[in-house]
């Protein structure tokens, strides 16, 4: 499966640290000592992959020569290239560094994908493998990924779904066996993944696998680079009262400019996902339209691909009383953020105050930070 080593010279590997320096000089990145401290690890992954030898071709031995122990012995396997697990608080620049990593790697064999999206693809592949009657459904799906990918860059590894938790260990095991190198970001140290999850003891070997095959590095910065950015026109209205509604109506009228408005219905794995008002890739829905129904990552990914701008009315305070809806809202914002959808919303409070206590509040810190970043006037322009 491994590609010929010469492929890795096509773009001269484009060291991540060099890309970082260039973009800092261009004013596209604000240099941060904590970010700079992890650049050598990102460079190390690419350098190790470049140095890793291509599989040696061996001439098959006859049965007699094999029995006598002569001929071409199997070559010693090269030590595996260690990937990287980069974790730290929200807004510290992990996703930006992941983008640099993907830009520095050769296009022919690298892929950068959000973890939610990737796991949806895997689950779809598993469904097909089970229909074929494959006893080990994970292996053929993982082999197909490995066939075209040597470097897999995940953003935002989170494991909260038991279905993902039960297959991710076997999935990564096969990918590693096939020489796939994985680099991922996360808000949590590996030991906190799937924390308090159902049957978590079955998940623990995956944590050991991460420690064995990936270098775990903390991006320890005190600066949240998503805060303090210059905002443009107001796109977040709180509290969600009559004034907020009037402002949202005015923006909707300005954006649609008299276009015909009608509902948009998407079909995802047999489920119906509806945006009540839609015109020219601009959608509008209430919080309960999107989060009050049993929708999941695949539904929100499809929604994010269908719109360039989304207006959400009436985001309430979130807590244990509406925990399921809050989880869906987090997944929705992840999908919108990854697709760079322009978000305009009315809510009960500012993002940081929507969900600040109880189970789920830790995970919501990242969502609040993303909601704040998405208010910037240049959001999605790049």
TrEMBL record:
SUPFAM superfamilies reported in the protein's UniProt record: P-loop containing nucleoside triphosphate hydrolases
GO biological process, one term: cell division
Single GO MF descriptor: ATP binding
Keywords, alphabetical: ATP-binding, Cell cycle, Cell division, Nucleotide-binding
Family matches, as InterPro entries: ATPase_AFG1-like (IPR005654), P-loop_NTPase (IPR027417)
Pfam families given in the database record: AFG1_ATPase (PF03969)
A GO cellular component entry from the record: cytoplasm
Key word Oxidoreductase present: no
PANTHER family in the record: AFG1-LIKE ATPASE, ATPASE N2B
Name of the molecule in the record: Cell division protein ZapE
């Amino acid at each position: 499966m491994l590609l010929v080593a010469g492929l890795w010279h096509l773009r001269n590997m484009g060291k991540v640290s060099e890309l970082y320096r260039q973009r800092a000089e261009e004013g596209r990145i604000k240099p941060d000592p904590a970010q700079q401290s992890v650049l050598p690890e990102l460079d190390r992954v690419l350098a190790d992959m470049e140095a890793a030898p291509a599989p040696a071709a061996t001439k098959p031995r006859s049965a007699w020569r094999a029995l006598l122990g002569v001929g071409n012995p199997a070559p010693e396997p090269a030590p595996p290239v260690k990937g990287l697990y980069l974790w730290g608080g929200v807004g510290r620049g992990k996703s930006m560094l992941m983008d640099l990593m993907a830009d520095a790697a050769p296009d022919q064999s690298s892929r950068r994908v959000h973890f939610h999206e990737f796991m949806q693809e895997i689950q779809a592949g598993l469904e097909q493998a089970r229909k074929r009657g494959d006893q080990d459904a994970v292996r053929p799906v993982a082999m197909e990924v490995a066939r075209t990918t040597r470097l897999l860059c995940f953003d935002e590894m989170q494991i909260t779904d038991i279905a993902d938790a039960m297959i991710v260990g076997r999935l990564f095991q096969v990918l590693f066996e096939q020489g796939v190198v994985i680099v991922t970001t996360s808000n949590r140290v590996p030991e906190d993944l799937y924390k308090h999850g159902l049957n978590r003891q079955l998940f623990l070997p995956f944590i050991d696998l991460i420690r064995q095959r990936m270098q775990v590095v903390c991006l320890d910065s005190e600066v949240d680079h998503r805060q303090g950015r210059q905002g443009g026109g107001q796109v977040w209205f709180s509290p969600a009262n009559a004034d907020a509604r009037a402002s949202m109506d005015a923006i909707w009228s300005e954006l649609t400019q008299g276009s015909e408005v009608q509902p948009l219905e998407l079909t995802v794995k047999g489920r119906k996902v509806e945006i009540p008002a839609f015109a020219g890739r601009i959608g509008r829905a209430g919080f309960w339209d999107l989060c009050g129904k049993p929708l999941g990552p695949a539904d929100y990914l499809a929604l994010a691909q269908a719109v360039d701008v989304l207006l959400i009315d009436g985001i309430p305070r979130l807590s244990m009383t509406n925990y399921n809806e809050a989880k869906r809202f987090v997944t929705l914002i992840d999908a919108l953020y990854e697709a760079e959808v322009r978000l305009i919303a009315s809510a009960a409070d500012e993002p940081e105050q929507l969900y600040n206590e109880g189970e789920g509040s830790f995970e919501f810190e990242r969502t609040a930070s993303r909601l704040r970043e998405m208010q910037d006037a240049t959001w999605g322009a790049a």
